[in-house]
What does this fold into?
Amino acid sequence: MNNLKLLTLASALLLTGKSASFAQTTSTWNNKQCAVVLTYDDAIDVDLDNAVPALDSVKLRGTFYLIGSSPVVAKRLPEWRQAAKRGHELGNHALMHPCDGSLPGRGFVTPDNDLSKYTVSRAVMEARVNNTLLSAIDGKTVRTFAYPCGDLTIGGVKFYDQLKNDFVAARGVTSGLQTAAEVDLTNIDSYMINGQSGDYLIDLVKKAQQSHTLVVFLFHGVGGGHSLNVDLKAHRQLLRYLKAHEKDIWVAPMVEVAEKIKAYQQSPAAKK
It folds into this structure.
C-alpha cells in the first residue's frame, strides 16, 4: 500500500472515530449539541420570588440546592413543593451548610457549621437527614448533592465517598466545560456567577454548543438576596437564549443530566 492510500485510510479512521464520539456525545445530551444545568444554592427567598417564576415563564427547569435548616424552607414549604411538582429538582445542600472554617477567607463560618470540626459520620448523617426532609417535601428518592462552599474533605477524607449510594451525583465549584466522558460525577464542574453580564452567560453556552459539552451554572442571588448575585436582566437574557435555541440545547435539572452521564459512563461505548 502506497503512502497516499495509507494517509487516506488513516484520515478516514480518524474521521470515523470523531463522528462516533460526536454521535455518542449528542446522544447523551438528548440528541442536542450540549447540555445546560441551571443550579441555585442556599434556599433563599429570591429562589421562589425571582428564579422559579423566571424559569416557569419560559418552561425551563432548574435545580435548587436546599439547606435543610434554612428558615425559607420551613416558611415556604408549600411553594417548594409546588416548584418540585412543576419539574424543578430540590437538591441537597446539606442540613447546616457546613464549610471549612480553617481555610482563608472563611470568617463567615461559625463554630456550629465549621466543617473542619465535623466528623465524617456527622457530615454523612446530616446529608441523609436532609434527604429525608426533601423527600417529605417532594416525595422523591433520587436527587443530587452540592458541596457547601465546594469543600470536599474533613481531615483529608472525602466524606462524599460514603454518600455515593445516596445520590446520583454531586456538584462542585470548579469551573469547566466537559464531555460526558470527562465528567466526574462525584464533583461536577460549575461556573459560579457573581455579577457577570448576560452576554458572558450566553457565551458560555455557545462554547458548550461548539464543543458538545456540559455547562453548569451556579447561582445564588437572582436580582438580590445574596452577596453573590446575578442581575435579573442578565439572568433573563440567558433564559431567553436557552428557550430560543431549545432545539439545539438540552436544559434539564442536574439529576436528569447526571443520570444520562452515568448511563453513558457505564456503557460499553464509554469503555472503548
